[in-house]
Request: fold
Amino acid sequence: MAAMTLSRFALLLATIGFKVITALPATTAAQLYPEVIPGPGLPSLASLNLTSAQLYTMPSPISSISLLNRATSFQSVCGPQDAVYVNVQDIIACYHYLSSLNQNCGGTTFNQGDTMCTAGNAKVVDSCHSDSCSVRCTEAAVSVLWAINSCTRPDQSCAGWAQPSGNGDLIVGAINKNYNG
Reply:
C-alpha cells in the first residue's frame, strides 16, 4: 500500500462525510492562565520579571510547621460562606506573587479591605482594624498559605482568612473577587 499524504487522507475523509479540521487555533498563555493583577501600589509583574503563566505553573506551596504553630489573636477561619469560595489555583497564583515581594503590604485605612492581588476569580484582601496597618508581603503570603492548606475543599475551591504574624490589626483573606461582604 502506498503511503498516503495527510492532505490526500483529509480529502478521502471529507468525501465519505467526515468533517476535517485543517488547523486548530493557537492557544496562548493568556488563554490558559488568567491575568494576575497586583493591588494598588504594588510592583507590576513585569518589574519583577514574572508572568501570570509563571505564577500559575510554579510548584504548589507546602506549609511549614512554624505556620501551624504560630500564635495570633485572630481565630483563622475558612469561608465563611459558599459565596466566597473560588478555584484554589487562582489563590495559589496570588500566593506566589505576594511571596516574591520584598516590601510591606496591607491596609492604610481602617477596615477598607485593600486588594493585594487578583487572579482569575480570586482576590487576596486585607482587613485593617486600626488607623493604619501593614505587614511584610511574605507574611501576608503565609496567611494565604494557611487558607490554601486549611480551607481547600475536595472540589478544589478555597476561601479563608488568617492573621499574619507581625501585625495584630491586620487580617488577610483569600476569597472570590466578587464577594463584597
Q: What stands out?
A: DSSP finds six helices and ten strands in the chain. The helical segments are 6-15, 29-32, 52-57, 65-69, 88-99, 137-151. Residues 29-176 form one domain.
